[in-house]
Structure formats: C-alpha cells, structure tokens
C-alpha cells in the first residue's frame, strides 16, 4: 500500500510528503506564530510556516493528514531556514539550563542557611552576622559565584538596623553591587 501511494504522489508531481504531526515539530521554529508552542490545528500550523517563508500555494498542497511538497528546492529552503533558526533554539535551551542551574545553586545555599539557623534561633545580626559562606564556594565560578556573593551581602544588609544600612549605603563599599 505504501509503494502504491508513493507512486501516486510522484506521478502527481510531488517530491515529498510528510504527516502534519512530523512536519510541524520539525519546522515550527521557522515561524514566530508557531514558535515556541503551537496550540492550534497542525494543518494551520503548517500553513503558517509555509506562508512565513513566502512559499506559493502552487509549491505545496495540504491534504487530510499530510503536507505535499512539489519541488526539491522548496524542501531545501525549508531545511536552510530550519538550520538558520537552530542557533536561536540552542540559545533558548542554554538560557533555560543556566537559569535552572543557578536556581539549584541558590536553593542548595538556602538549605545550608536553614540548617545553620533553625527556626527560633537567636543570632547576632549585622555586618559581622554569622551568615555562612556556601560550603563549596570554591567550586562556583563566573555568574554563579557572583550571584552567591551578592545574595549573601544582601542577607547581611537586610539583617542590619536601618541606621546601619544607611551607613554602609553611604560608604558605598559594601552594597554597591546588590542587584535590587
């Protein structure tokens, strides 16, 4: 049955056919309407992708379950556009991983603080408050290390009295890089 269908498609002048459910995930990053997530009908998503590339309706046909591409040059244009957009997809993945990684580092440090200061503990607040450094600070580097240092400084600053805070803020040496 598949061979007969292939012969019929080739005789009709189409070099390629793909299910909407395979075409849309492969090429969805090409069109801003379908990227990052397409909620609608897969057929309409395929139409948006092809219209975004300004591929004329004579170059493709939309069937019940498949999109039919007439020329190999159209398929090549789709692949070139996809390859061009894969760099942006990689940036999105990297950005999301870095955010999750940094959140994990901060969460581990918060857990260290919770263990160091159990609920109800009275401790010395202020500039020399015993807020510990993360146990593995030497393993952190770059943005993660900067974030941990700033967060610790913010904890110390917020635990001070308002008079003490204004003193350090006027000195500028202690709070110059706190991000909020």
Structure description:
Helices cover 56% and strands 6% of the residues. With 180 residues, the chain is mostly helical. It has two domains: 2-93, 2-Layer Sandwich (Alpha-Beta Plaits), CATH 3.30.70.1590; 117-171, no CATH class. Strands 1-3-2 form a three-stranded antiparallel β-sheet. The longest helix is centred in the middle third of the chain and has 45 residues, at 72-116. The chain is rod-shaped. It starts with a helix and ends in a 9-residue tail after the last helix. Residues 173-180 have low confidence and may be disordered.
Quick description:
The chain is mainly alpha-helical. 56% of the residues lie in helices and 6% in strands.
Write a concise keyword list for the protein shown above.
disordered C terminus, 180 residues, 6 helices, mainly alpha, Alpha-Beta Plaits
- CATH class of the largest domain equals Alpha Beta
Mean model confidence by pLDDT: 76
**Strand order of the main beta sheet, please?**
1-3-2
Counting helices, strands and paired strands, the structural category is mainly alpha
Total of DSSP H or I helical runs spanning 4+ residues: 6
SSE order, as H and E? HEHHEEHHH
What is the CATH-assigned architecture of the largest domain? 2-Layer Sandwich
Could you describe the largest sheet, including whether it forms a barrel? 3 strands, antiparallel
| Euclidean distance between termini CA atoms | 65 Å
C-alpha geometry: rod-shaped
> What oligomeric state do the depicted chains represent?
single chain
CATH topology of the largest domain: the name is: Alpha-Beta Plaits
Q: What is the number of independent domains?
A: 2
- In helices, the fraction of residues equals 55-70%
- CA radius of gyration: 28 Å
Query: What portion of the residues fall into strands of 2 or more residues?
Result: 5-15%
């Amino acid at each position: 049955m598949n061979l007969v269908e292939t012969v019929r498609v080739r005789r009709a002048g189409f070099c390629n056919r793909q299910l909407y459910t395979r075409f849309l995930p492969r090429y969805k990053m090409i069109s801003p309407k379908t990227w990052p997530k397409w909620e609608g009908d897969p057929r309409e998503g395929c139409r948006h992708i092809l219209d975004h590339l300004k591929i004329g309706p004579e170059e493709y046909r939309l069937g019940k379950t498949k999109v039919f591409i007439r020329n190999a040059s159209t398929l090549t244009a789709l692949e070139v556009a996809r390859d061009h957009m894969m760099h942006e997809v990689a940036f999105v993945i990297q950005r999301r991983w870095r955010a999750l990684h940094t959140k994990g580092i901060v969460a581990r440090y918060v857990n260290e603080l919770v263990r160091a200061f159990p609920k109800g503990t009275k401790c010395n607040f202020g500039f020399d408050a015993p807020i510990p450094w993360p146990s593995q600070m030497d393993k952190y580097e770059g943005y993660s290390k900067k974030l941990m240092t700033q967060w610790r400084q913010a904890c110390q600053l917020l635990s001070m009295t308002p008079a003490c805070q204004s003193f350090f803020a006027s000195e500028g040496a202690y709070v110059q890089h706190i991000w909020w």
